[in-house]
């Protein structure tokens, strides 16, 4: 099957050839003719399968006829994250070179002014994250009644991030007669429900998970003690010892750990950048760019920030934490070994992670081997580990200082040993900063509905893991002591 057989316009075909693509990927071959026939499409495909071009190419062909009206976009694409939205925009720029279409990006972290001006002039393609889109609608600057085609991309991610109520609202604002394209990597029951609600007689196109890609990925577990400084040391050794490392993504489960680990890697002289939900749009873009160009070949990221990013040719993935959702493991390691390339993934595992590893092995149907000694080789007993950790901190920082003072030189080895104590202080500082930021967050006035939406918004893009209620598992011992009354 060639692109020419799919029914795309000449202008689009020329752009595809210029982009260097000769054969459509399976999702493109299956979806494009149906999109061009103006059918609703339910596409089950992950990023990395070419699904973005599966909707951008036929959209460009469809948009060649007709023109945009002020404040009334002709097509709307919803993306869960700013990065994904920006990538879709890049696709329109690349494949739309031979056309004069107006494309606008509505994402958070960028001023409303420029976005307003563009919408007022009229846009053919509006690419948006749900929250920012609704903000524009509420400001009365945007009408969705002219939308002929709606794309809901990464629907399962939207569900994870709590965006479905917003998507339901947006769907009520676009005409019922629109064409809808709905993409998701997985089909949990809630996604089946909303796909039935949003789509009319859809054509279902499905491409298998890139399980074949996994065949080119060497997967290993690395045993570590659970303290963060021990895990950081394990990671540094892994990075230093990795063969053929060109670039790597290091995944953490929580965004605050992304920031801490990033700082630690920098302190140890690793060329690293961070990507997490608390960074503003420009910082995120700059970080990604420096990773893409190889200026900083190590990217420390959280799942939410990294999901769906189009980063070709990553040689290594390091899981600093075992992901809490087994599916995230598949997404993470799918960053390497793309398009038949060799890749390697290393997951740092502590004795608390056995259930999570079991869930991953069940999902992937593969047993992942330990590189080096397994968890049994680590000294048993949490309390002992913690005491030892503290002792080591004191000793090593004293040693590091002593040497530094004696020979007045910066020593790599001494630095590395002294680092845990410094990092512990840094971690406490970071936690204090996080706390004071949350406490300082102003509560904006507004209608009850607005307030409720505000609450949800604050939770968006959060990747701090499940919320701990009360004291969680960490109830101080004195509270558990029996109390004598009278
Ligand atoms: P996506 O799944 O949309 O994130 O695309 C994954 C990668 O595949 C991107 O780098 C695209 O540029 C690339 N790509 C898309 N379509 C094709 C194609 N037909 N042939 C080769 N590469 C493609």
UniProtKB/TrEMBL annotation:
Q: Which residues form the Helicase ATP-binding domain?
A: 32-205
Which Pfam family name is an example for this entry?
DEAD
Record motif Q motif, residues: 1-29
- Helicase C-terminal domain ranges (all copies): 237-386
Superkingdom: Bacteria
Tell me one GO molecular function of this protein.
helicase activity
**Coiled-coil segments on the chain, per record:** none
Protein keywords: ATP-binding, Helicase, Hydrolase, Nucleotide-binding
Q: Where is the DEAD-box RNA helicase Q domain?
A: 1-29
Ranges for the region named Disordered are 370-486
Per UniProt, the ranges with Basic and acidic residues bias are 382-416, 437-461
E.C. number: 3.6.4.-
Q: Where are the transmembrane segments?
A: none
Q: Which SMART domains match?
A: DEXDc (SM00487), HELICc (SM00490)
> Its family?
Belongs to the DEAD box helicase family.
Protein name in the entry = DEAD/DEAH box helicase
From which organism does this entry originate? Bosea minatitlanensis
> Lineage, please?
Bacteria, Pseudomonadati, Pseudomonadota, Alphaproteobacteria, Hyphomicrobiales
């Amino acid at each position: 099957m060639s692109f020419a057989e799919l029914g795309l316009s000449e202008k689009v075909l020329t752009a595809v050839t210029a982009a260097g693509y000769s054969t459509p990927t399976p999702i493109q071959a299956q979806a494009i003719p149906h999109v061009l026939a103006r059918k609703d499409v339910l596409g089950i495909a992950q990023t990395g399968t070419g699904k973005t071009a599966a909707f951008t190419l036929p959209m460009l062909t469809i948009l060649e006829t007709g023109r945009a009206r002020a404040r009334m976009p002709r097509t709307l694409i919803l993306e869960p994250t700013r990065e994904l939205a920006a990538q879709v925009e890049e696709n329109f720029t690349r494949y739309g070179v031979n056309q004069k279409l107006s494309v606008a990006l509505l994402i958070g972290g960028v001023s409303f002014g420029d976005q307003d001006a563009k919408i007022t002039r009229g846009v053919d393609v509006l690419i948006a994250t749900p929250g920012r889109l609704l903000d524009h609608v509420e400001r009365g600057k945007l009408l969705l009644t002219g939308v002929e085609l709606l794309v809901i991309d990464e629907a399962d991610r939207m569900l994870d991030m709590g965006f479905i109520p917003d998507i339901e609202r947006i769907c009520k604002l676009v005409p019922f007669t629109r064409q809808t394209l709905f993409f998701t990597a997985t089909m949990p029951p809630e996604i089946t429900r909303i796909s039935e609600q949003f789509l009319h007689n859809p054509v279902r196109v499905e491409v298998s998970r890139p399980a074949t890609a996994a065949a080119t990925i060497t997967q290993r577990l690395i045993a570590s003690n659970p303290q963060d400084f021990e895990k950081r040391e394990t990671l540094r050794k892994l990075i230093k010892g990795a063969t053929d490392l060109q670039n790597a993504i290091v995944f953490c489960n929580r965004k605050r750990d992304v920031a801490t680990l990033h700082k630690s890697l920098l302190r140890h002289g690793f060329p690293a950048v961070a990507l997490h939900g608390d960074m503003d749009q420009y910082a995120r873009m700059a970080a990604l760019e420096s990773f893409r160009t190889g200026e900083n070949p190590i990217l420390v990221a959280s799942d939410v920030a990294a999901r769906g990013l189009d980063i070709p040719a990553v040689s290594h993935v390091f899981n600093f934490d075992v992901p809490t959702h087994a599916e995230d493991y598949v997404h993470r390691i799918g960053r390497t070994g793309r398009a038949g390339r060799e890749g390697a993934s290393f997951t740092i595992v502590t004795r608390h992670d056995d259930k999570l590893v079991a869930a991953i092995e069940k999902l992937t149907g593969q047993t992942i081997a330990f590189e080096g000694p397994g968890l049994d080789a680590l000294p048993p007993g949490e309390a002992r580990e913690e005491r030892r950790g503290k002792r080591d901190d004191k000793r090593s920082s004293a040693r590091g200082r002593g040497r530094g003072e004696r020979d007045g030189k910066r020593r790599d080895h001494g630095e590395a040993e002294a680092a845990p104590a410094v990092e512990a202080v840094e971690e406490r500082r970071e936690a204090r900063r996080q706390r004071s930021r949350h406490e300082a967050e102003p509560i904006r006035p507004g209608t009850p509905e607005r307030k409720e939406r505000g609450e949800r918004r604050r939770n968006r893009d959060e990747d701090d893991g499940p919320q701990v209620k009360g004291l969680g598992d960490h109830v101080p011992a004195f509270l558990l002591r029996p109390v004598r009354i009278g």
